[in-house]
Amino acid sequence: MNPERIAHFKLALEGIREALTDSGAEPLKPNRGEVAQGTDEDGQPLNEMLQAIASGRNKSRGLVLSQIKNALETINDYPDEFGLCRECEEPIGEGRLKLMPYAPLCVRCQSELEDGGQSRGRKGLTDYV
């Protein structure tokens, strides 16, 4: 990858990092209220669901920030390795890098990681036995 493209992706990474840090983590509201104050017990499941959603978003945000940090370190320390898959060392597709400049894996290696090497195609007869 040429130095101009690397500089472009570095700016993109810094912009994404800034946007994520400026927005901050989603607040987690207390799960239980005081029953004596007349809180609505029917609202408890909704509150738990909202907490789970906020917690999941915070976890995803933290993962992306960590991947951005790693990508920026790669750009600064080993610029020739930026844009190469961490597993197979093949170039990560330009489209993938445009969407996620912090992606450490190519589509093929990411799919293998998520699927555990299993195909996500049609189910066979033996899948139901």
Question: What is the strand and helix layout of this fold?
Answer:
Blueprint: H1 3-23, H2 44-77, H3 94-99, H4 107-115
Helix pairs in contact: 1-2
Would you write up a description of this structure?
- With 129 residues, the chain is mainly α.
- The chain contains 4 helices and no strands.
- It is elongated and about 60 Å long.
- 9% of the residues are buried.
| Global geometry | elongated
What is the typical, i.e. mean, pLDDT?
A: 83
Q: What is the total tally of β strands?
A: 0
Helix content: 40-55%
* Biggest sheet descriptor: none
How many angstroms separate the termini?
49 Å
Total count of helical runs of at least 4 residues: 4
Unreliable sequence segments: none
Structural class by SSE content: mainly alpha
Relative strand content? under 5%
N-to-C SSE series? HHHH
Question: Gyration radius, to the nearest Å?
Answer: 21 Å
Task: List the main descriptive attributes of the protein structure presented here.
129 residues, elongated, mainly alpha
Short recap of the structure:
The chain has 129 residues and is mainly alpha-helical. The chain has helices at 3-23, 44-77, 94-99, 107-115.
